[in-house]
Fold this sequence. Notes:
This protein is 29% helix and 25% strand. It is an alpha+beta fold. It has three domains: 1-174, Uridine Diphospho-n-acetylenolpyruvylglucosamine Reductase, domain 3; 178-259, Alpha-Beta Plaits, CATH 3.30.70; 269-340, UreE, C-terminal domain (Alpha-Beta Plaits, 2-Layer Sandwich). It starts with 6 loop residues before the first strand and ends in a 17-residue tail after the last helix.
Amino acid sequence: xxxxxxxxxxxxxxxxxxxxxxxxxxxxxxxxxxxxxxxxxxxxxxxxxxxxxxxxxxxxxxxxxxxxxxxxxxxxxxxxxxxxxxxxxxxxxxxxxxxxxxxxxxxxxxxxxxxxxxxxxxxxxxxxxxxxxxxxxxxxxxxxxxxxxxxxxxxxxxxxxxxxxxxxxxxxxxxxxxxxxxxxxxxxxxxxxxxxxxxxxxxxxxxxxxxxxxxxxxxxxxxxxxxxxxxxxxxxxxxxxxxxxxxxxxxxxxxxxxxxxxxxxxxxxxxxxxxxxxxxxxxxxxxxxxxxxxxxxxxxxxxxxxxxxxxxxxxxxxxxxxxxxxxxxxxxxxxxxxxxxxxxxxxxxxxxxxxxxxxxxxxxxxxxxxxx
Length: 372
């Protein structure tokens, strides 16, 4: 048993399983792009999965790809691009070096979640090491799969507390022939939310719908370029704003910067908060009072909040509790990364007890103060 904090760097799955069997308080790490989830506290041990990487199987005709957990998102995206395919949920932090396992364990999705769903909707199968040191297979490698306990979706957002991910299989989509983005300044947050609510009520195919306060909307559509003028004109008429178009390299750079959180300070904190449209105004007013940067994604169903000083995190935690919302800290100085109301905690603890009865991995806690 290792007594002090250690960084393990297994090169093979069997070696990782042995590390799990011989140690406790294990914290998995992929590319280290989400330090609040991967940086060890005292007496915790990191299992760095970066060497357990590589694409195992890619079937363009079946629209599936399988890779080891340490494989970078960028490597997967490059392989898919050769066949005109992509991961529609727009995984964040790819340029920064995010890995497949880390992205799945954190449950992270980008702007494409608005139309296609989040990462948990695309994972078909996983392999992971449980607290006994056994390699467990859940799901499979085809879109149509056998019934059973849904380990793949359970691992999405598990934060490495239910097991050590070693492999995952995802379904992929054909990439749109072209995309274009309409930027509209609605003038205020209330007017922007009215616009989002209106667009959400209509049968319009939008690739992405993001809001940057106070009232700037970014609406991305995809398909054949010759259909864009008519579709853009309809959006302008619906929103009663002409706006401006982002095309080609300018558009690509905007969404790349959005997924990489270029608008936030890399030395500060970053929090992901699932949101409801009805709570945006009250939440945003508080964040504005704190002087924090934020971006609302996926039709305002998801909020990203960033700031330079982690001292604001307890305030955000208290405010999220008051709104019955939950936050996940990706960057920032915290002992426990979940803020606000942690829902389903009893269920998660029962699953953890079944998969990890000896607490080889870190535990789910009630609040950030429970770990202090």
